[in-house]
Amino acid sequence: MSGLSRIVFETEAVSKDRLNSLKTKGVDIVMSDIEITDGIYDRADAVIETGAGTKSLGLKWALKLGLMPLYQEVMRETGADNRMFVRKAERGGFENVHKLFTKMAERNAVPDFIEIDTDIYAALPGITLSFEEQTRMINSCINAAKAVNPACQVILSTSDSSDNEKAKKWFNRYQVSGGKPFDIISLNYELDSETFYNLSMNMSDLSRRFEAKIIVDISRQDNPLSADIALEDLDSAISIVPLDMGFGTVYSDKGLDEAILVA
């Protein structure tokens, strides 16, 4: 575990006592999620308070941008008109994320990381986006965050954790389409002995190919101790990612508690 980050994904606002408890467990990054909708910057007090509390304890804060609600709002306006949808979604992403980050900066709660889920762009109902269009929408959110905090690190997440061909194809196309630089690839994964080797190979290949750090996100797995792969094995696999590009693991709040990890 030495040298790896321990990240906990909290789905609700977190009290100062809870943050202190996480710190004693060895957590060094708290991840919160927020559903981006039009005007979210005026309704984000709870998550901003979590961010401010996290940073006041010397912990780092990551913010997962839930962009699907914003895109669904835009789609209700534009229907399946790709050009109009992408234009409005691109502008809406930039404006809302930028105003949200500006408000966070005023309260000393600017995230150290943002995470964008790459899978949602193929899951939008009733519309098919070209890769260039997807990339434009992602870029707008990265630009908005970086305009407020240039040091903010970008995490792009994918569920293709054990499918190397599919994962590398997506990131290749993103770069070719003019995608903004990113720092970390997060692989959403459920511990399983049948796919663990493929996960390991995917981590190694993606880190070298795209010069990105690697996170394995098991936060969807509430009780990792029930899996047939031990947490120690996952830590070991991440720690041997080439060029020290293994970054760490994301746990759910419940999963972290049940694992009884020691700092």
Give the beta-strand count: 8
How large, in whole angstroms, is the Cα Rg?
18 Å
Low-pLDDT parts are: none
Q: Cα distance, first to last residue?
A: 9 Å
Q: Class by helix and strand content? A: alpha/beta
The global form is: globular
Helix content: 40-55%
In short:
This protein has 263 residues and is of the alpha/beta class. It is built from nine helices and eight strands. The protein has an eight-stranded parallel β-barrel, surrounded by six helices.
Question: Can you tell me about this structure?
Answer:
The chain has helices at 16-24, 45-56, 68-78, 82-106, 131-148, 164-176, 196-210, 231-239, 253-259, and strands at 5-10, 29-35, 60-66, 113-117, 153-158, 184-188, 213-217, 246-252. The protein contains nine helices and eight strands. By secondary structure, the chain is α/β, with parallel strands linked by helices. Strands 1-2-3-4-5-6-7-8 form an eight-stranded parallel β-barrel, surrounded by six helices. The chain starts with a strand and ends with a helix. Helix 3 (68-78) crosses helix 4. The mean pLDDT is 94. Strand 7, helix 8 (231-239) and strand 8 (246-252) form a beta-alpha-beta unit. The protein is globular. The longest helix is centred in the middle third of the chain and has 25 residues, at 82-106.
